[in-house]
Amino acid sequence: MRKLLLATLITMGSFAAFTQKIKIESIPGTQIVDYAPTPEQAKERVLPMGYTEMMKAKLEADKKIAANIRKSSTQTANFQVFYEQGSNLSAEVKSVFERAAATWANALNSDVPIKILVRWRSLASGVLGSAGASTYYRNFPGAAKAGTWYPIALAEKMARKDLNGTDQPDIVATFNSDRTDWYTGESTPTRLQYDLYSVVLHEYGHGLGFIGTFGASDTVAGWGSGSFVGSAGIFDNFIVNSTGVSLIDSTTIENFSAALRKEVVGGKLFLNSPSATKANANKQAKLYAPTTYSAGSSIYHVDQATYRIGDPNALMTPSIAAGELTREIGPIVLNLFADLGWISSSITHDPLTDNEDTSKDYIFTAKVLGDTAIKDGSVKLYMTTTNSIADAKEVPLTKAGNQYSYTLPKSTERRKISYYWQGEDLAGRKLATPAEAPLSPKGFANYYQFTIGADTVKPVISYTNNIFSIYNTDTEINLPEGQAYDNIGIDSAYVEYYINDVKQTPIILTYTTNDKTITFNGSFKFTSTQFKGNDVVKYRIVVKDKAKAKNTRFSPETGFYEFKVLKLFPAVNTYINNFDTSPAAPDDFYLKGFTFSKPTNFTSIALNSDHPYKNGSEETFEVDGNLFTNYIAQLLKPITLRSDTAKIYFDEIVLVEPGADGAVFPDRDFFDYVVVEGSKDNGKTWQWFQSGWDSNDDPDWKKAWASLNLDKDQNSKVVGTPSLFRKREIDMLTSGDFKAGDKVLVRFRLLADPLAYGWGWTVDNLNIQGPSGKAVIVTPTVLGNEPTSTIEVTISPNPSPNGEYKLKASFAKATKSVTINVVNIFGVSVFNEQHTNSGNEFNHTINLANLSNGYYLLKLQTEHGMINKKIVLAK
């Protein structure tokens, strides 16, 4: 069983542990995509008889009411709409975006301008629009819940100040400029038009807070995944099942589990929002949770069947019918938003940070602001200099208007101060800064902390080395970008390095500063004649802080990073080696995580990964932040490719962690794998000769791994034996990346992710473009036959330039039903169709133009079996 992916431990957020208990953090936002109704949704979204005439009458009445309101009130929030550069929008279309913003501005209250970036773009045919927060924040002064992500517009409302910069949008909303069926007027659309105003109002609602952190695959669901690093969103705190259990209560429903997925697709999710419930005749509002999980629709909409056309709460349903108007926000959304924090009170405070100056007083100040008056005498500051926050005592405050202050007298002693603020408004809301201080309901301590006096805290460095080899002709090598944090600030950062143990002039790193965090860059610069083959470069990052003591941190903490200088041999036409008799074999290769060795129970030397290989620990996957390691065996003799037989032959055993069911290389769910690659630019870039593979590639490898011979961490304890050798043949021209005459470097690569490992990879009897009989080919002992599919499928074109794929399937038996399911690289279903059929043939065309470019897995299933095919979308 595959363990769940874990977020990388060393992140900028983790630096908080070295300074104070709370640190403001932010992450990039996500968007919810809204589509035109599916056939199933369209059945539930039918305009009633007389609907258009009824809406015309309502609009006339609403105009009169709105005119009276405009005479007696002003907007309570300042919404600012900007348009993407290059957008060519008519004044009529711009009016729609601005009228929708004005509607929200009249409904909400904020001291901070809410900035909306509108993008009018060409989108897939089925998409109406998408929107979301540009950024999420947590642990900001004014937040009501600790460790909880708030969309930026709501975070700024509660913090009572701009958090992401005045030039940055708070909401990013994108709409389909290709659609010819938009209605942009102020009356009623025809039954063939979609009301742009209704769609815009809906999308702004997502960006303002109707959004969260849930996601699901075919097997599990979870919250706080990916960039959200284990924390739920504020909206997620209000989701409950039919028995009232919170979906983020992991003590009752395990996060990232099949049990949670059952809830997510069970059709019985509700909003536990007291205000929304009261406004909904004391019934909890129902959320959209269809039995087939739909990313972007499930959970973050109200239920389609409950809130039908004409219902005042229909705005945030997952689809809108042609001709439908949803131009009012509705009581459920407005009252939910009040509970999310759009009606709130806050204690705003700039936390004090470490300082070495003991000769001055320190002043603590806070402002208390709210949509409801603050209870007299309730604002308090608690402080302690002991190691226990339980010892904190109330200190006397001076009040001036809505500002409270306390002066801590100077002292020559070194002091560590822990403190927090509390208060209450007349609506009974308990206020605390940091949120839920001093102890959150989940039991973790929540308070500010800083030190006055001599600083002894070393900087913290976040840096991952990915330089392991260079070529003797390289003249400039860029360092990976790194970050460093210090409680009082960074003074300097540089690289100390040696060539063959001879010290060189240090490299001064360039960096940008954000508060007390720096992001640094730099590069090695060498001369073209400086190196010979097998030279060794050692280096380490050195960071010093601004303390009087100049506290210093190294990366790595001890020793040095090291890379080897490689010298390429002249190109050859063939390379043949059984690794037994050639003493030059080690010199022909650069090895990282590989050796030429003879494992136990084997009779000859071969190219072997470490047995077992280690989990990934060196580089970072962009998609989920997990670490991985590449183990490499690179041939240093380029091969001049032939036009007739550009083949690589070898014998191998592959016992590496298999990917998830249905995963396709190089999906993240393909986990560990092996691959053979080529480079025609002297190792600067590499391409696969063919897709990588794992233990699922051979029935006996798969059987060996799945023999339940696993340790408690699900690492395989199976040991390779000669009977598991299999032949491998690779055509170096098949991928299309290489052609005859290219001089190509060849390397063997094993990728290990961070969670499970096994015995590894062994390669023997290597033959590159030689006569096929020259390498000694081991005849394997066959232990089983790979099952064959009863379904044959052809897909064309593949890759598809426009999203259309023609499927032709032949079945061994006559079939009555065919299900087509397409999943993305995260295992999430993005397309599903069911068809009746007769006979042994099936022909059908599917359209995936609404999806993003990339790899997908198409699953074709009948009552007799299923077949998986990789498809590629390349618009």
TrEMBL record:
Residues in Secretion system C-terminal sorting domain copies: 795-872
Membrane spanning residue stretches: none
Entry-linked SUPFAM superfamilies: Metalloproteases ('zincins'), catalytic domain
Highest taxon of source: Bacteria
One Pfam family recorded for the sequence: Por_Secre_tail
Protein name: T9SS type A sorting domain-containing protein
